[in-house]
Amino acid sequence: MSELDVVVGMEEPRYWVALGACVAGAAALFWWTGRDCGKGKATLQAIGWTFLGMQVFELIHASLNPDLPFSIHRSLPLHFCGLNAILLGILCFRPNPHVFTFAGFMGMIGGFHSVLTPQLPSGDALPLFVLFYLKHAALVVVPIVLVRSFGAQFPRWAWMRAYLIAVGLSTLVMGVNAVLNGPLAHPDGLVANYMYVWEIPEANNPLLIDWPWPWYLAPLHVALLVHLIVINAVFRRFLPAEENGRNLRWYE
């Protein structure tokens, strides 16, 4: 872990302030989109621009801040949450059930754990701290809003496809990390750890077991499958989806 990675612990007051702000913001968004005036195209596009704007701001901040220089080893949007923020932003303009299958599931899971057990990879300067919580809270809430108020849904066996896409994508990113840490190694020793598939993250998360690479990834795969199945079941129960004239079952 480099000096840029900052873990925010539960013993810090800012942890609870940020968590409370996330809950309040989520409640406000649910309330707004639950009203008739919250179901229009303008609201959806505002959500999309917010997602895309957050990613652009993060890149600009890294480019202009002398204390946080832009680096392909650290600043590219190749973490699951950064990628899903971009995809969800695009989905607000161009809906696609196949893209939503991945971005919705993985965004909720990654955002949930990032808010509860935060590790800020680019440091905890105030703009980045606020951006981190805003983005990751939105990753949890927006997929629910899209299903509840804007007609999105998870197709049959979406949870299984999301898992397979995540495995394939993270495997590709392993290769990216290998190139960045090998032939393109940073002169100051900065480690590329996109998607945390190069070394175990430092977040205080009970799902992280201090095993060597790649074995620490094994329990994370099991946990990912459990999360996907549980989330799918919750959506099937409270926001049911139909296919061929019938409601999809909890495991479909």
Describe the protein in words:
With 252 residues, the chain is mainly α. The chain is built from 7 helices and 4 strands, in the order E-H-H-H-H-E-H-H-H-E-E. The strands form 2 sheets. Strands 1-2 form a two-stranded antiparallel sheet. A hairpin with a 2-residue loop joins strand 3 and strand 4.
Ranges where pLDDT stays below 50 over 5 or more residues in a row are none
Task: Compute the separation of the termini in Å.
Answer: 39 Å
Number of helices: 7
How much helix is in the residues? 55-70%
Strand order of the largest sheet: 1-2
Domains counted in the coordinates: how many? Answer: 1
**Overall body shape:** globular
What is the string of helix and strand elements?
EHHHHEHHHEE
Largest β sheet strand count, sense and barrel closure:
2 strands, antiparallel
Average residue pLDDT: 92
How many beta-strand segments? 4
Task: Bin the strand percentage.
Answer: under 5%
* Class from secondary-structure proportions: mainly alpha
Radius of gyration: 18 Å
